[in-house]
């Protein structure tokens, strides 16, 4: 009882000195791990109808679960992908704040939205984040996909295999590349570790990343996972680009 009271007092002092703020706009909020009401209301949530494979949102009235043009031209290596929100300015500010600003207070909120986006999918056996190359990890000091994966693992009560997959090639950033160049850029960039092979053998894997653009990185990861024994690979991200470059 005394310890609980001390914790409450300590938190009250901390909140007075460093009040919780919305990770998107900086507005003061009641508790960490949430968005303010305005930012929450402005999130472009992805709901049906959508592509049954990559989760690309369709226009109202389109057939939910049909395949989009990109997936019909070339099926991704993952079995399905879902995203919580469209990658717009509001989502971008959250992702960039997490990646480069170290604003991790929004991770619980992002994780809850991601968990909601896969509520209709079969529950996987374990969770694996898309890894960073060791050089980039050293520069950034953390892997944002791993932070999201950890939150998801807690929300979904699933084991997290944070180091089952590794990035063996320090590839250039995908940011300015088109679809074909992205695929070439990450070809053979990922491999499953020895411990990872034991963990994923015959298992259904949920791959976690922050943003989905063309799906090249996720497909390269899924290919490596399936070659090493995973039976099924789903993908969940916080945000997805609605109109990825086609070239």
Beginning-to-end CA distance, first to last residue = 63 Å
Low-confidence stretches: 2-17
What sequence of helices (H) and strands (E) makes up the elements?
HHHEHHEHHEHEHEHE
Radius of gyration: 19 Å
Structural class: alpha/beta
Tell me the number of strands. 6
Sheet with the most strands: spatial strand order: 1-6-5-2
Q: How many individual helices?
A: 10
Helix amount: 25-40%
User: Mean pLDDT, nearest integer?
Assistant: 88
Shape: globular
Largest sheet: 4 strands, parallel
Instruction: Provide the β-strand percentage band.
Output: 5-15%
List the helices and strands and how they pair.
Blueprint: H1 2-17, H2 37-42, H3 69-73, E1 80-86, H4 89-101, H5 107-117, E2 126-129, H6 134-140, H7 144-156, E3 165-167, H8 179-186, E4 190-192, H9 194-200, E5 204-212, H10 216-227, E6 232-240
Helix pairs in contact: 5-7
Explain what this protein looks like in three dimensions:
The chain is an alpha/beta fold and 247 residues long. The chain is 40% helix and 14% strand. It has helices spanning 2-17, 37-42, 69-73, 89-101, 107-117, 134-140, 144-156, 179-186, 194-200, 216-227, and strands at residues 80-86, 126-129, 165-167, 190-192, 204-212, 232-240. The strands form two sheets. A four-stranded parallel beta sheet has the order 1-6-5-2. Strands 3-4 form a two-stranded antiparallel sheet. Helix 5 packs across helix 7 (144-156). It is globular and about 45 Å long.
